[in-house]
Design goal:
Nucleotidyltransferase, domain 5; globular; alpha+beta; binds adenosine-5'-diphosphate; seven-stranded mixed beta sheet; ATP binding; Xylulose kinase; ATPase_NBD; binds 5-O-phosphono-D-xylulose; Carb_kinase_FGGY
């Protein structure tokens, strides 16, 4: 029997690219406490830039111990913020997608026998076989080709797994490890996604991969919800299935919290741990999009999200298993999001969003014909290397004044999002809305540009600017309520308009969209 009078809270985490965030909500979804740890700033000893380490040939990794140490830190920050962990009924989390964590032999036993008087990071220092390849990695083109060929071509792979082969997807990443570092592969007991790795820390055993994040691997059959044997065979040996474990629905309780957290932080022994999922999946869960609404996540990457009733067969972008009620979700991901905006801002006017905003305000919509493509990192959509292309109104290469570059950058990002969303059949109607979330969703000038370019109003959620984080805590609450047969008195999440398209938006941006498509066609292609 659940004691109705006792205070009940739910804890959510987001292990995203640049930081670890944590939030405590009550059973009415009201936010109680929050804390975060910024990897580059708070944990400089790992020497990351934007949360990652870069190699010479497109390899991008992060040390998993960084995330473990960040968890030690964020929990201590929650203690300082006054969190009473004994009120937490359930917790869940989100994480940057596609990255893989390679556990050494004996790791599971270690997770089960942590002593409460030590930090996690000191006790888990030797349980990882290597650094984790993350979603910005673009070094697996050959593995993508091999996987597509083995399964019967890119269209066939997309039909089965929801995506053609993408460099950052975990299947090609595993194949690269298997082929180029067989000793690392051989020494690995289990392979987790970053989401299931984070969940494992809480549950004290290797946690299962959830179906929604699991469909970002090019390994899962999104129709049968089982691993695709042909894809597994192409990416590893006969031990791969066992290394990955059986995937579970995202709304599963994977266990109770491990004794470590009970003894060290005062959690209840029956605090439930709900499967962790991908950050975009969690954002979709947190945004509660209605029919015709589209999510726009402006984190390190920019992504477009929406719920789907049917999987379809995408020509570009991804179909994932849905994290909540919609059976499937569509995802488009642009690698050059906030970090590119931030780097260009620094170059053009120094480290102030206000100064950047002043630059924007001294230009007009349509930017007098100046247009640009700014890829500071290899782009995912379209597949392209880092580059910069800036043109004047006659289509000539140019080097315009900073204010024109500022607008060219943001208009270019929004035009790219519109062009690619149209290409996958996403048609916005008069009643449509874009609901923005993520770190850059506080920037109303950026949201105004998206509203104009899409000719669609942009809203933000009233409760929190990070739907992935809020979504994690909400999923914990909902799955707990279902499991314990409890009615949540939960208030509805609400959204408010922040940017409305100007009446002449379509007239300005429709011809620019045609020009932008041409610029995209002329980009150098990756092999
Ligand atoms: N006012 C702002 N305008 C534009 N971007 C912003 C603003 N404030 C923060 N950001 C961007 O938000 C990004 C972090 O967003 P966040 O959603 O926390 O990323 P992630 O979840 O990928 O770690 C930073 O890279 C920063 O550039
Ligand atoms: O690769 C993808 C989605 O396919 C990225 O969106 C990652 O999931 C990183 O998320 P953020 O840290 O940018 O939120």
């Amino acid at each position: 029997m659940i004691d109705e009078t006792r205070k009940k809270t739910f804890l959510g985490f987001d292990f995203s690219t640049q930081r670890l965030k944590a939030i405590v909500i009550d059973d009415k979804y009201e936010i109680q406490q929050e804390a975060d740890v910024e990897f580059d700033v708070d944990l400089p000893e790992f020497r990351t830039a934007g949360g990652v380490l870069r190699g010479e040939h497109g390899e991008v990794t992060a040390p998993p111990l960084l995330w473990v140490k960040a968890l030690d830190m964020v929990l201590d920050r929650l203690v300082v913020a006054g969190v009473d962990f004994s009120t937490v009924e359930a917790l869940s989390g989100a994480a940057q997608q596609h990255g893989s964590v390679w556990w050494a032999k004996g790791a599971e036993a270690k997770l089960a026998s942590l002593t409460p008087d030590g930090f996690l990071h000191t006790q888990l220092a030797t349980v990882f076989v290597c650094d984790s390849p993350v979603w910005m990695d673009s070094s697996t083109t050959a593995d993508c080709k091999a996987l597509e060929e083995a399964v019967g071509g890119p269209e066939e792979l997309a039909k089965i797994t929801g995506s053609r082969a993408y460099e950052r997807f975990t299947g090609p990443q595993i194949r690269k490890m298997y082929k180029s570092k067989p000793r690392v592969y051989g020494a690995t007991e289990k392979i987790s996604l970053i989401s299931s790795f984070a969940c494992s820390l809480f549950v004290g055993k290797i946690a299962p991969i959830d179906l929604s994040d699991g469909s970002g691997m090019n390994l899962l059959d999104i129709h049968t919800m089982k691993w695709c044997d042909k894809a597994l065979e192409a990416c590893g040996d006969e031990t791969l299935k066992q290394k990955l474990g059986e995937p579970v629905p995202s709304a599963s309780v994977v266990g109770s919290i491990s004794p470590y957290f009970v003894q060290r932080y005062g959690f209840k022994p029956d605090c439930k741990v709900v499967a962790f999922t991908g950050d975009n999946c969690s954002a979709l869960a947190g945004l509660r999009l209605r029919s015709g609404w589209v999510g726009l996540s402006l984190g390190t990457s920019d992504t477009l999200l929406l719920g789907l009733e049917e999987p379809g067969a995408p020509v570009a972008g991804h179909v994932l298993v849905g994290p909540t009620s919609a059976p499937y979700m569509a995802l488009l991901c642009f690698a050059n999001g906030s970090l590119t905006r931030q780097a260009e801002r620094d170059r053009l006017c120094g480290p102030s969003w206000q100064a950047f905003d002043e630059l924007l305000r001294s230009t007009v919509r349509g930017n007098m014909g100046y247009m640009g493509i700014y890829y500071n990192t290899a782009e995912i959509l379209p597949r392209a290397p880092s580059l910069r292309v800036v043109q004047d109104s006659a289509g000539r290469p140019c080097n315009p004044a900073p204010q024109f570059e500022a607008r060219a950058l943001l208009e270019g990002q929004a035009l790219s999002a519109r062009a690619h969303s149209e290409d996958v059949g996403l048609a916005l109607e008069r009643s449509s809305r874009i609901v923005a979330t993520g770190g850059a969703s506080v920037n109303t000038s950026l949201l105004q540009i998206f509203a104009d370019v899409f000719n669609t109003p942009v809203y933000v959620q009233d409760q929190h600017a990070n739907a992935a984080l809020l979504g994690a805590a909400m999923r914990a609450a909902e799955v707990w309520a279902q499991e314990t047969n409890t009615q949540l008195s939960g208030s509805e999440v609400t959204v408010s308009p922040v940017a409305k398209p100007y009446p002449d938006a379509e007239k300005i941006y429709s011809p620019m969209l045609q020009r932008y498509r041409k610029m995209l066609e002329e980009l150098p292609k990756l092999n």
